[in-house]
Amino acid sequence: MGLDDSLYLAIRGDSNAQQDAFSKLRGQLLRAMLPKLKTMFEVNDSFVEDVVQDTMIVVMQKLDTFRGDSSFFTWVCSIAVRQAMAEMRRKRWKDYSLDALSTEDAFEPPASPDDFTERVATKEILDVVKVSISTALTDKQRTALLAELDGLTTDEIARRYDTTRGAIYKLTHDARRALIKDLHKRGFELEAMLERTT
Amino acid sequence: MKEQPDKLAELIKVLKNTQETEIDCDEFWEKAAYLAETDLLQHKDELRLYLHHLELCPGCAEEFELLKKVIEEGSR
Q1: Nearest to B12 among A89, A108, A194 (CB)
Q2: Lowest mean pLDDT among A40-44, B4-8, B29-33
Q3: pLDDT of residue A106
Q4: Which of A31, A39, A37 is nearest to A87 (CA)?
Q5: CA-CA distance, A166 to A168, in Å (whole number)?
Q6: Between chains, do B18 and A180 touch, taking CB under 8 Å as contact?
Q7: Are the C-beta atoms of A175 and A144 separated by less than 8 Å?
Q8: Are B6 and A198 in contact (CB under 8 A)?
Q9: Among A47, A144, B26, B51, whose CB has the most other CB atoms within 10 angstroms?
């Protein structure tokens, strides 16, 4: 485990050792990834082989960032799973456009509960949330938040904005805090809102 | 697309679970390999920011679950 990991040392070694280590790592990664990706996501062998190949390139680029606080293989896997998921998400959301997002269309009218008072309360909450999203957030915060509500993940939003997923997370974190503050200012408490909407 | 109007309830739940200080996805993945080899429940206080991130970030949660399964497969 760590920086004395034999596979890691071999990859950092001379070119012969490096080639052998890469070949071993590629095989090990393929054996670990193939059954899981195939059963969980129904992808084919060639998809997994491409992911493993792309992972090898990223591993070489990021080799100096391995700190040794896990086994080298686990660190490589942490790159591979992100490569795989990013590719699957890119395909899954290819027809989804951030341009089409609007607060007005983001939420359908709530299903009508039998109780009239309850119906009015839910409608009131929906209206105030929409106003808060429209007025308390920047355009970029609003778009990222609505996209997340539709199921887009931070990496997929980041890809479209050509930024890091960390930057998108910070953006939506700021958006959430701004919404909380605005709703509070309007006299709405989250606990009570949650009780009425679930 | 998710079922409506669950999105409203989902948003309020996320707002309620929002904290002043949170780690972002890049910070999470700097430590993810270590976390995948660690018993998270035994270190839940020390790792609370990372566990909280998994609660709020479905993308990272999905990838982290896959990571644990892949390393389990790789260790067979």
Answers
A1: A194
A2: B4-8
A3: 79
A4: A37
A5: 5
A6: yes
A7: yes
A8: no
A9: A144
